Structure formats: structure tokens, C-alpha cells
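Database export, one record per block. Field names are fixed; values are copied verbatim from the stored entry.
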Amino acid sequence: MSDTATPAERVPDFELPNVATGPDPFSLSAVAGDPDVDAVVLLFQRDYHCGNCRNQVQAIAERYDEFAALNATVASVLPEPVDRAREWQASYDLPFALLADPDTDVSDAYDQPVRFGILGSLHDLVGRMPVATVLDVRSGEPIVAYTYEGRMPADRPEPDDLLDEVRALRAD
């Protein structure tokens, strides 16, 4: 398990196609500018086939009302084309944004780790590691409040861990 808080770290803005709930395209700056949103939880997934990723989005979906009650928006970033992301949405009917990042530009901009060098960069199934990031957007300028970098495919925070981070952010 690896988790790090990186207070006051500014993050790159992005815009990605959204195949689930919320605006399409999904723009971080637009969400950050919403006065009803205090936090954005970004879930950077490994790939379409990842069972742990599928379990994570379903677990978050079951608890999404708790995130919404804390004025937190969740967005899952899938390093796949829009059609693959649509297949996930058809299977899981997620109540939060599901973003397609086919060129992994956003995943890379947020430093999602990739193992196994060139092989890992060519095949996300063996290389891309899961990451969860909580952004504080209360000022309208997103900053990193918390990042969890998985060291193994199954290494990711539980919904309670992410909810605790959002609560801690709001307590500040």
C-alpha cells in the first residue's frame, strides 16, 4: 500500500469524453468552477479487462450517494477508447463520470505509474498501476489533497478510505 498527501500541488486541467453521468465532455476546470463541488475523486484505472478496476467502480457506485452528500464528484478514467468505456457503462450503469482516455494523455499527466518499462507502456494489462487522487476544488483551482498509488493491480483504496479523505478535506 502506498499513499501520499501532496498538499498544494496544482494539477493539469483536462477534458475527456464522458460516457456516463455528467457533462460530456467532462472538463476538470468546469467541475472545479461549480460552487456545489468541494472535491473531485479521480480513479485512474489499469484497462478495460482489469477485474479489480471493475470491482472498484462497482464498489464506489454502491456508495456514491455518500460522496455526493459530501459535495464530491467522482470520475473514473479508463485508458481506453470511447467504445470500450461505453461497454463498461452498459454493464455497470455508473452514477458518476466514466472518462475515456485512449491516448493515456491525462493518465500520464497525472503520473499514473507504469511498470515493466517499454513492455508496460505498450500493454497496460501488465504495466499501468491503479491510482486514486482526491482534488480540493473549493477555491476553483484544483489542488491535490491526497493520492494513493497502487503497487500491485489489486492495491487500491477502499471506498471508506476515499470518503475519509474527502471528510478530512472538508474539516480543514
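Remark 1: The chain has one domain: 3-171.
Remark 2: The chain has eight helices and nine strands.
End of record.
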